[in-house]
Amino acid sequence: MHTIVVTTALLPAAFTDSLKQLGEVRLAHDYQGELWTGATIALTTVMDAMQADQIGALPDSVKLIANIGVGTDNIDLDAAKARGIQVSNTPVVTEDTADLAMALLLDTCRRLSAGERYLRAGQWLQAQGKLGSRVHGKKLGIVGFGDIGQALARRAAGFNIQIVYWGPRRKPEAEQALGASYCETLEELMASVDIVSLNCPLTADTHHLIDAAMLAKLQPHAVLINTGRGPLIDETALIAALQAGQLAAAGLDVFEHEPTVPEALIAMDNVVLTPHIGSATAECRGDMVRRAAANMAAFVQGGELLDRVV
Ligand code: DGY
User: Fold this and answer.
1) Which of 7, 57, 90, 96 is a plausible cystine mate for 32, CB 3.0–4.6 Å?
2) Would the pLDDT of 126 be above 90?
3) Predicted pLDDT of residue 201
4) Among the atoms of ligand 1, which is closest to the Cα of residue 71?
5) Distance (Å, rounded) from C-alpha 297 to C-alpha 299?
6) Which of 46, 258, 274, 276 to mutate to test the pocket of ligand 1 (most atoms within 8 A of CB)?
7) Which CATH architecture has domain 4-92+282-300?
């Protein structure tokens, strides 16, 4: 089989050059046209939509979508399955994303970014007048206790933070290992914690998991951290809740309509905003492209994918 990898993502040349050992590599601007003729693998990142329309437009020769990213919400998995296309991901972002979640938690609670903004603007005294909230000894609610949620719990334990979690399944072993307690309902978690961190995947079930009703459960001093996916939160409801003082602050690495960030959030002094950088370390990005390459190599050799999603 002559392998043709087509990507719409702007990837480092060193990586795309290394893929030439698998076959031909083409950079396309969209999901149809001549560049796709004979393509066998579509190489995507989490910023490249592979929804039903795009999958429908792929030639029959495409048999693998290799996603660079652990989340596959950019891909319509049912549409891929229906066309007999396998999907792989790169579940190698756990520790880096947990680092970022912890950093965002500390920044938001202790007002690091805000303090730096004031300092740079020559407003030392104004910055000192605005107090953050203590981190140690607080209660953190982790929504989604998978690899990243558990990696965050390990970090938080070092700050003497009490951990509770909620997810579709109770995880007794992880609970015991990490000293975490299970909340029977998300409502209970929201109402009882000082800090909430979202660490679950985006699926049809988790879309707008945090809506106006859920936000209304938070205590006014609560802080919300999201390093999962933007659409886990109803962003309009979050803005209204922040404006109404239903929560104290938010730290957001992901947004509902990336790369658009609502002006209302940008204007808020109690909100920390970062541009989806959970995996953005040189080491992690290196691990991710190597893992995507390993999945593609397994596919080309006719073997089992390392990380088969569909
Ligand atoms: C992932 O791997 O899904 C990350 O969000 C990409 O940065």
Assistant:
1) 57
2) no
3) 97
4) 3
5) 5
6) 46
7) 3-Layer(aba) Sandwich (3.40)
